[in-house]
Amino acid sequence: MAEIQPFxxxxxxxxxxxxxxxxxxxxxxxxxxxxxxxxxxLSPYNLARIxxxxxxxxxxxxxxxxxxxxxxxxxxxxxGVLQRDACPCIxxxxxxxxxxxxxxxxxxxLSAALALTPFDEGTVLPHExxxxxxxxxxxxxxxxxxxxxxxxxxxYPDDGRRVEALLEDAxxxxxxxxxxEQVIESRVEQRLWVIDGPQIIGAVCEELAPKRGLIIADxxxxxxxxxxxxxxxxxxxxxxxxxxxxxxxxxxxVSMGDPGLVILPT
Length: 266
Hints:
Layout: E1 4-5, E2 10-12, H1 14-17, H2 33-42, H3 48-51, H4 65-79, E3 82-84, E4 90-98, E5 104-115, E6 124-125, H5 132-145, E7 152-156, H6 162-171, E8 177-179, E9 188-195, H7 198-208, E10 214-218, H8 220-236, E11 248-255
Parallel strand pairs: 6-10, 7-11
Antiparallel strand pairs: 1-5, 2-3, 4-5, 4-9, 5-11, 7-10, 8-9
Helix pairs in contact: 4-5, 5-8, 6-7
């Protein structure tokens, strides 16, 4: 079964950082040297400093890209730049793209904590092979910060689009946060709604529960890293509760029936 749970998300406070467009990024594996420099220049609080920070020739065990990421996270929390939501929530993420023909296309995602399951159980399925280097890198970052900073992008079957109908009801009466990632896909508008109502959260979790065959669209390394971190934590804390945070991974789930879901050639 596909168990999702609400969680207390960590989010930038616009009162501290101003325009959210200056602090959000593409996933870590799209941030190369040129993109990294541009992200660093946008804001002293840009997330690139945590998810794909600068490495230096003098890095060592006590001062390296992972310890610096953890220091940024602690400092930004202490300053109120990053704030944790007061109660467990789910999040609705709309991404609206201006297409080459001049029209607009919107894809809707549900961000939640997904219970980690091995691929052979059939709840979550991969379609890519992974490499040891990126997994070791992400695992070191997770160990240092104990936070999932990047979403795993997952597609789920929803022929009747019942989950999407529930989400539409949840966002209809509230205004979203808005941002445009500035470096790689600035023409895509991101809109985020924070949903904290227990009834709607319960209904969404119940609707998703029986589903299997969820497909990782992007984030295979992040998912396998989360599994490895979970196994480490279970060994360290054998008496931990089933709903311990390390048993879950941050995901954004998109319905396979969403008309805004389009696969284009590379």
